Amino acid sequence: MADITDIKSILYTEKSLSMQESGVIVVQTAVGVSKNQLKAIFKDYFGFVPLKINALRQQGKVKRFRGRLGQRLDTKKFYVKLPKDANITALSA
Q: Distance between alpha carbon 9 and the CA centroid of its chain, in Å?
């Protein structure tokens, strides 16, 4: 069962802020979270069911840390279409 702690952050970039005007938010989560689990999280903790959820798995970048190769963690991004009556500001609280 997914929990609210599986949501790492809500992304605020130029693209995601322009998508918020049309009612879509971008949520970054752990890799193991599915669409159904994310839908259950929104229903339990925020009180509404998203209209549509699209998923994107993002591979971690290979970077150098003090001269040695390392890799950032993989993440999963979800594009969540909110209903008209849903309040986006309640999500950031």
A: 6
